[in-house]
Amino acid sequence: MSEADPTSEAAARAQKLNTRAAGVVALAVLCSRVLGLAREQIFAALFGGGRVMDAFTMAFRIPNLLRDLFAEGALSTAFVTVFSRVSALKGDAAAWRLANKVATLTAITLSAITVIGVLSAPWLVAALAPGFDADKAALTVTLTRVMYPFILLVSLAALVMGLLNARGVFGVPAMASSFFNLGSIVAGVLLGYWLDPHLGPHAILGLAIGTLIGGGLQFAVQLPALRRAGYTFHADFAWRDPDVAAILRLMGPSVIAASTVQVNVLVNSIFASRLGDGPTFWLSVAFRLMQLPLGVFGVALGTVALPLLARMAATGNLVAFRSELARGMRLAFLMTIPAAVGLAVLAEPIISVLYQHGRFGAYETAESAGALRFYALGLCGYAALKVLVNAFYAIDRRKTPMVVSCVAVIVNLVLNWTFTVHLGWGHRGLAFSTACVATCNFLILYMLMRAHLGRLESGAMASLLLRVAVASLVLLAICWAGGHWLLADWAVQPFWPKCLRLMLVIAVAAAAFFLTASALGIVEVRDLAHALRRRLLRTRS
Questions:
Q1: Which pTM was predicted?
Q2: Is the distance from CB of 373 to CB of 360 less than 8 angstroms?
Q3: Helix runs in 129-170, H state only
Q4: 3-state secondary structure at position 414
Q5: Alpha-carbon distances of 331 from 296, 379, 382, 460, 527, rounded to whole Å
Q6: Per-residue pLDDT for 256 more than 50?
Q7: Which residues contact 66 (CB under 8 A, 6 or more apart)?
Q8: How many CA atoms lie within 13 A of 233 on its CB side?
């Protein structure tokens, strides 16, 4: 009898733990995305989809972009990579010392950036929203100044999240953004009503202040879990450290590479600001809905995969590295291809159910749905990039995503001009440009990673894509039939009948997809089913 291979057993255990952790993160992110959706629904119902929400969306986007660039994009990715390596090779004590140095550096640097941002708000708004008229620009400047400290709060929250993820704690940091949404909703609406009971333009200041309160909650709720993990903060200014330098070296390229989507969305906003009142917020609505499956599946897989891939690369286990990377991308495709089909086919009734309330009418619904259809075309590329980009950082190939992302930003500018100005597609062209760029970005990085590793289980990937495509055709047929027969008059249907019909169509289509996928022998579907069954049994017991 041959002995079991300990390396294979360890890899199998790691995959099981990875799947379980991804499930926890996916559930937490789903909760956060739903609350984020509720947040935007409430704001849209109260203030409509016109100039006031355009100003708020742009004002929030400026510090939020920097959050993605310096915190959740660059800092979190680089820190988790180096912290995991230090913990594996030098021990926990060295890793905690590194955390103190990075936390001190982050707090000081982001405080300075916050002050600069508040002072330079008029120039930022003029550069990023050149199409806004004087009154709309002035409101945007005020809101930007109020919300700019958000970047400091959420950057510290992202650093804590990275620490917890590196220690194998995923649920609490993934749930932290839910507290941001809760805080911004409750505090924002109450403060807005207090400032202006009629909820006029002055009340939007309440939403801006609520955003800061939500950012503070997102940071604070993670601190108890961090203490339980064994970390106590001590200010440490000894930044001349090789591990700190390694994080900074990773951050430079990842500022561009890890946040390509947000940079392109911001570029889209510049073009959208010239299209009148509404397109900036319509794009935000569509992108929020596209982010729901992206956050649940793509972000969850990328968050959980990064520490595992970093440890595998640090210990030289490239076989397990290759297998885990390929598996992560297959799971991303399995979950996002049917989601993209459903969003594209049912765009109008989905947005109508979620947003068509109060001052947000059928016209705004139709315009937002047009953008959502084009955004959905790039959903699979977005999700797979969450896993693939982290793999490049894990093997210390940080410059590759940076170069590809630089090219992607340039291509996005060209496509924006072509679709919006030359072809006259309006904000729909901006969404289509973003989807094209994300897909091309993924394809280029996939080919480069495959060349680096020698192979990347391409046969299994092609087999999965073919079977998922067949199952997605079944889903598409059901969504089209449901939309044609049950939801054709979505603009005038009462809310509850429309909501119930939409839920019925989605449930039947999803069940048909997974039954077809299981019948076609997709292994990942069976793995997910077994994991869900084990979770249910554990819950009952």
A1: 0.73
A2: no
A3: 134-147, 150-166
A4: helix
A5: 12, 13, 13, 12, 10
A6: yes
A7: 113, 117, 151
A8: 15
- Among positive and negative, which fits the CA dihedral 287, 289, 290, 293? positive
Residues belonging to the chain: 541
Angle (CA) 429-335-356 rounded to 5° is 50
CB 80 within 8 A of CB 167: no
Give the mean pLDDT of 429-437. Answer: 91
CB 302 within 8 A of CB 22: no
DSSP string, 289-325: HHHHHIIIIIIHHHHHHHHHHHHHHHTT-HHHHHHHH
Place of tokens 């002035």: 138
Does 2 score more than 50 pLDDT? no
Give the chain's mean pLDDT: 83
Q: What band does 472 get if pLDDT is binned at 50, 70 and 90?
A: very high
For the chain, percent of residues with pLDDT exceeding 90? 29
What SS3 class is residue 2?
A: coil
Burial class (CB in 10 A: 0-12, 13-18, 19+), 98: buried
The residue-averaged pLDDT of 416-421 equals 92
Q: How far apart are the first and last CA of the chain?
A: 36
In 435-528, DSSP assigns E strands to none
Helix H or strand E segment including 318? helix 318-345
CA dihedral (394, 291, 132, 417) in degrees, to 10, reads: 70
pLDDT of residue 68: 66
Q: Residue 1 pLDDT > 50, yes or no?
A: no
pLDDT at 346: 95
Q: Which amino acid is at 371?
A: A
d(CA 124, CA 114): 13
Residue type, 118: V
Here the tokens at position 56 are 């708020």
